Structure formats: structure tokens, C-alpha cells
Amino acid sequence: MKALVYTQPGEMQWLDREMPQAAPGEVVLEIEAVGICGSDMHAWHGHDPRRQPGLVLGHEFVGRVVESKASGVEHGTRWTGNPLIVCGTCEYCVQGRNNLCANRTMVGMTRPGAYAEYMSIPAASLIAMPAQMDATTAALTEPAATAWHAINLSMRVLTRPLHECRVLVIGGGAIGMLAGLLLKQLGVAALTMTELNALRRAAIARHIGCAVVDPRTAPLDEAAFDYVIDAVGAKATRQQAFAAVKPGGAIMHIGLQDWASEIDMRKLTLAEITLQGTYTYTTADLRATVAALARGVFGDLSWVEERRLADGAQAFVDLDQGRCASAKIVLKP
Asked: What confidence score (pLDDT) does residue 261 get?
């Protein structure tokens, strides 16, 4: 089979790879579509020691079963999936918080991912989807579930209902875009987004219909937002989030562009700011997100760009150089 392989920082190659084999309890999927995630870009830059050259990346996928060694999973059926391979028995799994599984591994990190014509995965990770759902929509389940999980976590700590809040989303990448679309569906009228890329600012204005600014030229009001989502996770955006949030407000930290930086602990304490982190999604979130995508909760998704998997190397370069208006590129074999 052919696969798009991460060969060294800044380089992907379209190479021959051995066809995967299903172990007991696993299936082999023929990949129909797979998205490029920010974490894949992070690995491509050489910034993720967990993802080493020689690896097939890709964890936002949909595919059709071509081999099954799992009961109840039939040849030819279509599935999306949870890229987290969880144990099902640790304290977090039994609590329904399997995103925090103490023994988790991951597709596209500890085992070959979906930037390939075929991929193996445990059947327990498969997520059912409507038979009529198109492949690009299904491939958005994983990033959309990340936004879904984060916003649901935040609603537990907001002092007023979400639709009453003035909300800021920092970053118009895929997670920021999907979060913005979901926030609008949840009734948030006072929504502002920030984005450095002019092409993406135009896409946000067109598809979400909210205020969108370049923070380099239009500084945000300080202490003005009840709820802030940092969908970038850089030192500068963490500082922006703390400056923008109101006393008593909440910050949801999703992005991990930088792994460490100082935060304003004085404001966190004296202004009773709630700072939350979030990691991916639970299986329940993934199932709820599939249903939401099927209902059109995230809009028509016309902002998503499709390309051939064989052209994926150029897609990474274009994303890196800011030449894409779309916050999400979905690759198809």
C-alpha cells in the first residue's frame, strides 16, 4: 500500500509500506478520508518527541472495514473512530473519562496512523456513524469532539449561562473554527475571534458571522470577556487570555503550541479566574459529535478543503506558510 510518511522535520514522503494486519480484536480499515490536525503539524515541525520520523501520522479518519478479527464488526461497514487506544479498566475508564486513561496509546503516535490507504485499529475504538454521512464530514468527528468536550467542561464552571456570556476564541484554526461554530449554535451572540492569517479571518467572518480581529493591529479590551478559549496555546495567547478575561471569568486552554510559559498567577488568584485544561474527548463526546454533525450543528462545512492524500506533503507546506484560507484540510486516498 501507499502511505504519507513523516520522514524528517519539514518533510513528508509518499512511500510504499507493508499492508497492515489485524490482530485479534482488531480490524483493518480502507481509509476514505483523514484530516490534518494541528498536532500533526507540530510533529512535522519536529516539536513532538513522541512522534518520531518514520511514523505514519494521522488520527482524524473514516474508513471501511476490509478485514475483521473482531466479533460484531462486519466486512464493508463504515466507521469513524477514537484514535485513543484505552484499556477500559483503569479508574478513569470506568468513570467514563477514558480520555484520561492511565494506559492509553494513540493512533498516529504509538502505532501507524491514517495517512495511508489502510490502517489497523482495535474494534473497541470504532465509532458508529450514519451510513449516508459523507467521508469529509465523518473525518471532522475528532476535532469537532475536541471543541464539544472543551465547551461542555467550561459550562460547569461559568457563573452565568453560556448564551449570556461575552466570549473570546483565540485562534481560528480547526479547533477554534469548530468551537466558534458550536458557540453560535449554543446561542452565544457576543462572540469575538482572533486570527493572524487574513485569509482565515475572512473565512471566519463569512462562515461564523462573528467579530474577528487581528490582535496585532486591534488590541483586545482588557477584562472584557466572561469566557475565553485559547485554541492556540502559545505563550503570547496565554497572556492574551489572562488580559482579556473578566474577574470571575473562565479560561479554557485547548492548544499546546508551547508546552510551558508563565501565567499571571496574581490575576488568577485575586480575580478568581477559573483556568481549565482539556484533553481530547470521551467516547460519549465522539458519539454525540457524530449526531451533531449529522444534524448540521456545525453548519455546511463548506470552509473545509479537500485534497488527495498523495498530495499531502504539499498540504503541510501550504498550511505552514499560511497559504490556506481553510482551517482544515481533509486528505483522501
From this structure: 77
